Structure formats: C-alpha cells, structure tokens
Amino acid sequence: MEGTKRPLIAKSGRTEKILVATCTSSNGKPPSTVTWDTKLKGEAEFQEIRNGNGTVTVISRYRLVPSREAHRQQLTCVVNYQLERFTDSITLNVQYEPEVTIEGFDGNWFLNRKDVKLICKSDANPPAHTYEWKLPNGTLPGSVEIQNNTIFFKGPVSYSVAGTYVCEATNAIGTRSGLVEVNVTGRTAPGLLWNVENKVGRETNL
Asked: Which residue intervals define the domain Ig-like in the entry (predicted)?
C-alpha cells in the first residue's frame, strides 16, 4: 500500500475528497478481493486490470475529506487471495489550524484573591508556535505578566482585571482564537467569611 505524498490539510468548509492511499494486488488468478478496515469516513474506488497472461491486477484507492478527527487514525488495506489474507496499514497525518480553549477562570475570582492565571491551550498540528493575548474592549491590565500561552495576574485581584480575554494561537496552517469572560465579585473569600460568622456567633453567646 502506498500513502499519498501530498500533505493532508484540513480546511474549514472543504468538501472535496482527496486521495490518501492506494492498495494494489497484482497478477492474481482468480483476482484478489481488496477491502479497507478503518474508522475513517471516506470512500473507496476499485479498478481491475486484465493482464495479457490471464491474471488480474486489482487497484483500490481510498479518498476522504481531511479533518481534525482523521488525524492519527489508522487505515488498513486487506487483501484476500484464495485462503490467504494480507494486510498493510498507514496512520494518517492531517495538519489543521489550532482549536483554542482558555483555562483558569473558575467563576470565583473575588476581590483580593491571589495567584490567579489564564492558560491558553490549543489542539493543533503542527503545534501552535505563537500565542497572543488581547482585551478587545481596552488594554491589558498593568498587573498582568504574559509568558508564552499564560497570563499571570500579579498581586491581589481587583475590579480592573475584569473583562473579555481573547487568546489567538497560530501555527503553519492558520490562526484561531478563543475567549473567556472574567468577572470579579466583591464578596469575601468563603473561608474568611466562615471565620467571621463563627467569631460573631461566639461573641453573641457570651
């Protein structure tokens, strides 16, 4: 079996199926049966060539629309000839632009909370080589420090860090972005509130 020499690139909106592998069983008499074993959602086409010596060469070509889901999926050609069975496999390498998610905001960023950060993660092939953070409605707070795909918020949390944070990830195929809405609440940390309530309760009972 021979895999395609062309790079497999997933593109948004693409519907054209391209050739990814060719499986050939030569000079069979009777001809071999060629099938494909895979979880991929492609289609196979078959061709029989009758040779001058009475044998038959069977060629099957497998085509699909490159996608993120097809990356690292196995494609196996199965040849059955009389009582014998032969298999050959390839693993697809599909390139695709980043799919971006942002982690770190847990919905509980309260005033004076410390050690918070946002992490931009991307699923991409090849891996993302550049990350860029933006705040569409203004500039990033002066209290942040950016290290590659992570924003560290220095010092205690204040209302100034609230906003919509956008991360753009770029690889050789393209650029995609993700966003998270950060809200800051004015309530006290849960542990501190519990201590205050219990202290008041003890004083009331005196």
From this structure: 1-93, 98-185
Compute how many other C-beta atoms are within 10 angstroms of the C-beta atom of residue 40. 17
Phi, then psi, of 152 in degrees rounded to 5: -100, 130
Q: What is the pTM of this model?
A: 0.78
Residues 68 and 115 in one domain: no
pLDDT digits (tens, 9 = 90+) for 29-57: 999 999 999 999 999 999 999 999 999 99
CA angle 50, 53, 54 (to 5 degrees): 50
Q: Which domain holds residue 86?
A: 2-92
195 lies in a domain?
A: no
Q: Quickly list DSSP for 27-53.
A: EESSPPEEEEEES---EEEEEEEE-TT
Residue 196 lies in a domain: no
CA distances from 72 to 31, 66, 69, 92, 150 (A): 32, 11, 8, 5, 28
* Residue type (1 letter), 113: R
What is the spatial distance between Cα 47 and Cα 59, in angstroms, rounded to a whole number? 5
CA distances (Å), origin 6, targets 3, 65, 92: 9, 13, 12
Residue with tokens 């390839």: 90
Judge whether 201 lies within some domain. no
